[in-house]
Structures are given as structure tokens and as C-alpha cells.
């Protein structure tokens, strides 16, 4: 007799152990990966290695949970009339002008523009929005720091009691963890304060500046037990990026000053990052600077050889 239970017991193991693909690790300079680590960036540029890109069962589950929480929070804050931004029709992809609260597609009080896909190509009908009363989805503001080139998208701006806040929504595993939170996590502060400094609400049709960050921590087990935490603006992290990125780019260009490269993990606030860093083994070796120089020299010789062969 077929033992179906035994057969199906293999499925969870298959799901949790399977990784569909690996790719060269890239240290991306973006707010969601702050604080910026010069050492990690150097290794990523000079010592390519194939690593998991997070496209696995557990990684995808948690990413999608976070994305779903963001979408729902943005949708209902818009319906409450306190979320400010642009809104994209779910059917025709036309996008509204910035607005407080969620409009339906084609509302006459707003101006509408054709939407774009991930490559920046126009999508949707050319003649105009469908204006069929379809629901819209929040379109996050694209941010750019002209000095460092840092890019990102913030979760939104909320206007509460005539006060303007940057919204930063995060998920946690349980309501007990959220309840115990007294202050935001340090990496979250680095990310959100950088977003706040990059935002330009006066250019987006508002007549006031951001007063601080409104962190919204949402537990995955009981999402209704969310917690709001205020944090003041702070330009420190963005200023550090503006200083650190040109420094590390110059190191790669010249092959000098590797000993001066700064690592994030020794900072007690960000020590947890060492658990997830692909280059932790190389980072803590005593001859790190010398090893980085050898990697740089090897790359220089390979590039020179490639140029001679072309």
C-alpha cells in the first residue's frame, strides 16, 4: 500500500533546501543596504564570488511578506487620507499627480501621465487614463542624491495633525518583538534618515518640510498590533556616504590606502551584519590590506592582458 504521508514529507525539505541559482555578489550602494561598508565594497569589486541571491523558499517568503505589508499599509493610509504621493491605475497604468489620499483612475481634480515599466518605457493606452473608476496603487517617490549618486525609493510621506513625516514600514516576526521595541533598529535608522534627507517635498507640491521619521513596525503574526515610533531627522549617514564612496572609488582606481578602508561590523550597533556578510572571512584576516592589494594587482594584470589580446 502506498505511503502517501511518507512521500509528501519530502516536500518541505525540498522547498527549504533548494536554491534555484547563484550569481556574483554585488555590493550595491543604496539606502536599504546602509550603512555603507568600504571593505565589503572593495572585496565585491576585486574578489568576485558566486553566492546565493536570496531566490529561495525562505528568502522569497519573507520578502513577499514585507512587500505585501507595505502595499496594504500604503493602500489603507491612502484611504485614510493621510498618505501623500502619486497613484498608478491597476488597469491602465496611468499615474496621477501628487495627491493626499487615494484617488480612483481618471479623477478630474488631478492631472494624469502615462506610466512606465521597469526599463522606463511608456506603457498603457496613449489616449489617456481609462477613467473607469479602477483602484490605484501607491507609486513611491524616486529619490536621488546629486552628490553621491545614491538612489532609492521611500515608503511614503504622511501628513498627520498638519505634521509631515517620512513613513518607514518594517515587519517583525512576532507582536512580542514589536511590543518590546523602544527605539528603531540602527540599520533602519540609517536607511530612513538617509531617505528623509534625500526627499524634496517642496518640489512635490507640499509647502512644508519633513519633521522626522514615522517608523511603523508590523508583526507578522498579529498585524493589527503594529507600533509607531518617531525618530528625528539626522544627516549623518548620508554625509558619511558622500565621504566614503569617493574614498573607496579612489582606492580601487589607484590601488592605494587599502589599510584605511573602514568596515561596518566592528561598530557595535551594526555587529549583526557580520552574520550575513559574504566576505566576513576575508574581512577579519590580519593581512587584509595586503590581500586586497594582491587582488587589485591581479585584476590590473588581467585587464591589461585582455586589452593586449583585443
How would you characterize this protein structure?
With 310 residues, the protein is an alpha+beta fold. It has 9 helices and 15 strands. The protein has helices at residues 4-8, 10-17, 38-46, 57-79, 175-180, 186-198, 236-254, 280-283, 288-309, and strands at 22-24, 50-52, 83-89, 95-96, 99-100, 112-113, 115-116, 122-123, 136-139, 142-144, 151-153, 156-160, 163-172, 212-219, 227-232. Strands 3, 5, 9, 12, 13, 14 and 15 form a 7-stranded mixed β-sheet that branches. β10 (142-144) and β11 (151-153) form a beta hairpin. The longest helix has 23 residues, at 57-79. The mean pLDDT is 89.
Summarize the structure.
With 310 residues, the chain is α+β, with helices and mostly antiparallel strands. The protein has a domain at 30-50 and 237-309. It is 35% helix and 20% strand.
Question: What labels describe this entry?
Answer:
two-stranded antiparallel sheet, alpha+beta, 310 residues
Helix content: 25-40%
Radius of gyration of CA atoms, rounded to a whole number: 23 Å
Q: What class do helices, strands and sheet pairing give?
A: alpha+beta
Beta-strand segment tally: 15
Instruction: Please write the string of helix (H) and strand (E) elements.
Output: HHEHEHEEEEEEEEEEEHHEEHHH
Poorly predicted segments: none
* Overall body shape: globular
The whole-number mean of residue pLDDT values reads 89
End-to-end CA span: 66 Å
Number of helices: 9
Major β-sheet profile: 7 strands, mixed
Strand content: 15-25%
Secondary structure topology:
Layout (H helix, E strand, L loop, with lengths): L3 H5 L1 H8 L4 E3 L13 H9 L3 E3 L4 H23 L3 E7 L5 E2 L2 E2 L11 E2 L1 E2 L5 E2 L12 E4 L2 E3 L6 E3 L2 E5 L2 E10 L2 H6 L5 H13 L13 E8 L7 E6 L3 H19 L25 H4 L4 H22 L1
Parallel strand pairs: 13-14
Antiparallel strand pairs: 1-2, 3-5, 3-9, 3-12, 4-6, 7-8, 10-11, 12-13, 14-15
